Amino acid sequence: MAATVLLPSEFTDHTLGLLGLMNSDPSDDLLTRPGEVIPSHGATPEGIFTFGTGWKVSKTSSLFTHDSKRLLDAHSFAPSPDPVFVPAFSPPETPHDPLVADMVTACVVVSCGRLPPPRNGKKNGTRYLEGNTLSFSCDEEFILFRSTQRTCLEDGTWSGEQPFCLKGWF
User: What CATH number has the domain spanning 121-167?
Assistant: First the structure.
């Protein structure tokens, strides 16, 4: 499985954990919680699994809410990781395998990040993935400058320029 996460540039050098440091240096992406770097070029699936479990979230803080007693009990009291869980490590995939190429193409999701509406204006659209287009307009008595539409591009950036609204001269 492959996944790509694209974050706005403000996150550069401000991330830590399973997704690496976001500093354009892949050699330090597998940084353990204690600060040890696992070299990615020699990492085994078992080593990466161990690395991932080292970043598990404690049971006292979770990224998720549990809306039933059963889910809350399962999360709060069950052993973690489950001792009966045994990951299935598959043989390495070769880049020349056509199935690998299809999988990589199918699994890449590109997000350009949220765009705010212009001050004294409106944004039409809430989808920020590759290929989506947002349009902008201004409130009455204001004139829109720069791009009236912006499209999320395959490289994770927005086309055009951030629009702004100025009071019209009528």
Answer: 2.10.70.10
